[in-house]
């Protein structure tokens, strides 16, 4: 008989069930802002493509051990869930798109032609093609011993297409869109059929990938549309929404699904995705969004990640209290507008979690 999770706040919140308090976790919580992470990276001395498995290098047991150790780092600060340490580009490797990191992701040549899209391999056998991911999940589940839920994730098809077509990160360091992303917008305008063919392939891969993670033991999954902030309403409706809908409709219903769309103001379109949880940015009025969706879906977010980097303890406390009041107790997961900045003081990260867990209704 399967054990019950000792802390299932996140899962109950995602289903809009009663909770004792609002659960909290952060995107990029096991990463660059944590001094222990930096120490581990220095100690293991492995390139990110090995840890993320975006390369064809043979897998070693030690690679799995490092990924597990990094994934579990945030447990010591009291978060209510652990997210698997990997990259949204990980499942592209078995398709034939091997990104290396120098220091950001690079694919040479980028994927821009019919023949290149046709050459991408399907993800039909995840236990073989993504053996590493399965081993990391199984090891995490065993180590956690049902203490906390485990979050799996994938990049949304359009976000992955941006990386493939640009051949690198489509985002500038800091904010905004890179010039390298220009061919994506050109394809939307001049060759939409070709782009849809790529998105179709990526959607089938993503469905298989997320369901594989669920079969290996993750209890909830998140879909990352990390380029949503540069999309017009029409672009989102044409090239993002239909694929979100296909993915969430095809997911194993045992695991709730979260849609993260970075700083996306189109909450109505996000709501049409079929996701159980909408992860919104600082551009969204959380109280208004809850009213407009009729409390039919849970929300995640929307504390400004800049406040954690630049603010005082008092600023962070105020932001957390405001977010919890606006999001209310039921159907709300406290998180950030996006991932933690690499230069966020770790004391601020710990304060964010502490304030979230000690918040009292006034």
Instruction: Please state how the strands of the largest beta sheet are arranged side by side.
Output: 1-4-5-6-7-8-9
How many helical elements?
Answer: 16
Characterize the biggest β-sheet.
7 strands, parallel
Strand content: 5-15%
Q: What's the SSE pattern?
A: HHHHEEEHHHEHHHEHEHEHEHHEH
- Could you list the spans in which at least 5 consecutive residues all have pLDDT below 50? none
Compute the average pLDDT.
92
Count of beta strands:
9
| Share in helix | 40-55%
**Shape label:** globular
The quaternary organization reads as single chain
Distance between the termini: 41 Å
The class by helix and strand makeup works out as alpha/beta
Determine Rg (CA atoms, Å). Answer: 19 Å
What are the SSEs and their pairings?
Layout: H1 9-14, H2 35-44, H3 48-52, H4 61-71, E1 82-83, E2 100-101, E3 105-106, H5 114-119, H6 126-129, H7 131-144, E4 150-155, H8 157-166, H9 182-190, H10 192-216, E5 220-225, H11 233-250, E6 257-261, H12 267-271, E7 277-279, H13 286-292, E8 298-300, H14 305-310, H15 313-327, E9 332-333, H16 346-358
Parallel strand pairs: 1-4, 4-5, 5-6, 6-7, 7-8, 8-9
Antiparallel strand pairs: 2-3
Helix pairs in contact: 4-7, 8-10, 9-10, 10-11, 15-16
């Amino acid at each position: 008989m399967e054990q019950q999770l000792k802390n299932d706040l996140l899962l109950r919140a995602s289903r809009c069930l009663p909770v004792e308090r609002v659960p909290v976790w952060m995107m990029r919580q096991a990463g660059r802002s944590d001094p222990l992470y930096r120490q581990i990276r220095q100690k293991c001395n492995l390139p990110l493509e090995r840890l993320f498995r975006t390369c064809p290098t043979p897998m070693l047991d030690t690679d799995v051990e490092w990924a597990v150790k990094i994934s579990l780092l945030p447990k010591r600060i009291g978060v209510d869930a652990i997210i698997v340490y990997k990259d949204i580009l990980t499942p592209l490797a078995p398709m034939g798109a091997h990104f290396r990191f120098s220091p950001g992701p690079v694919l040479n040549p980028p994927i821009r032609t019919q023949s290149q899209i046709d050459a991408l391999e399907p993800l039909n056998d995840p236990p073989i093609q993504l053996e590493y991911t399965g081993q990391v999940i199984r090891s995490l589940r065993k180590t956690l011993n049902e203490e906390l839920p485990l979050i799996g994730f994938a990049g949304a098809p359009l976000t992955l297409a941006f990386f493939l077509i640009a051949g690198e990160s489509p985002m500038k360091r800091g904010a905004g869109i890179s010039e390298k992303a220009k061919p994506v917008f050109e394809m939307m305008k001049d060759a939409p059929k070709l782009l849809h063919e790529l998105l179709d392939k990526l959607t089938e891969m993503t469905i298989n990938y997320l369901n594989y993670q669920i079969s290996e033991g993750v209890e909830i999954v998140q879909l990352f549309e990390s380029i949503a902030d540069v999309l017009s309403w029409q672009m989102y409706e044409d090239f993002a929404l239909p694929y979100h809908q296909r993915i969430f409709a095809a997911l194993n219903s045992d695991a709730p699904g979260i849609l993260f769309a970075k700083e996306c103001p189109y909450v109505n379109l996000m709501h049409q995705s079929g996701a159980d949880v909408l992860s919104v940015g600082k551009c969204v009025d959380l109280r208004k969004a809850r009213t407009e969706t009729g409390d039919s879906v849970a929300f995640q977010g929307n504390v400004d990640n800049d406040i954690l980097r630049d603010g005082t303890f008092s600023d962070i406390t105020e932001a957390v209290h405001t977010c919890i009041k606006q999001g209310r107790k039921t159907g709300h997961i406290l998180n950030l507008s996006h991932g933690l900045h690499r230069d966020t003081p770790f004391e601020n990260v710990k304060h964010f979690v502490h304030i979230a867990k000690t918040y009292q209704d006034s």
